[in-house]
Amino acid sequence: MPIPRHTSDEIPHRPLLRDVAEQRIRSAILDGTFRPGEALHDRELQDWLGVSRTPIRDALNELARAGLVEMEANRFTRVVRPLPEETPEAMHTLGVLLGGIIRLALPRLSAEEHADVLHRFERTGALYAAGELRSAREEVYALWTVLAELARNRHLLRVFRDSFAGLFFRLPVDHFAQTVDRAQVLEHQRALVEAVADRAPVAAEQAVRAIYCNA
What we know:
There is one protein chain. By secondary structure, the chain is mainly α. It is about 65% helix and about 5% strand. It is built from ten helices and two strands. The protein has helices spanning about 15-30, 40-50, 55-65, 85-105, 110-130, 135-150, 155-170, 175-180, 180-195, 200-215, and strands at about 70, 75-80. Strands 1-2 form a two-stranded antiparallel ribbon. It is globular and about 55 Å long.
């Protein structure tokens, strides 16, 4: 029998319950709703998200693989408690990853995408300069999530999705407030905004690496 042909418009993509649960739990961990070391109970998560146990466990397994959750069978499932000594290594890794993303993405942006990305970088810098570190952190997470998509490289995007949240979680706000040279970061941030405005991918990569690898 002939097989009907469908376009993506005719069959809309429906996110899996596992993916929805993973996203909601991840967001709750990153925004501090679920604190480091806090126990995560299946029944409470099921009641909160309105889904069965299977997608909850699948989501938690993915979050464990990403480094946000730690699990031991029949003992505990809890939010990872980042160790201070992990922060420098996480920052250096992010510098390499995000530097590569912006170098690849910047030349590929449409005029509209470029304007949006530039605005996001400017807003992030303004929040950081004003000392609104938690808001700046949220903007940074959203910005790089967008840029990873705009790099239009499925292999790089897979690496980003597998590692970014776990690495980012190991950069607590307190670290930036207490140990990072704020004036130096602002200088690198201004260089980054200028490079993005000029569509200069190499300079943008260097500025990103300076922010994360030299902070």
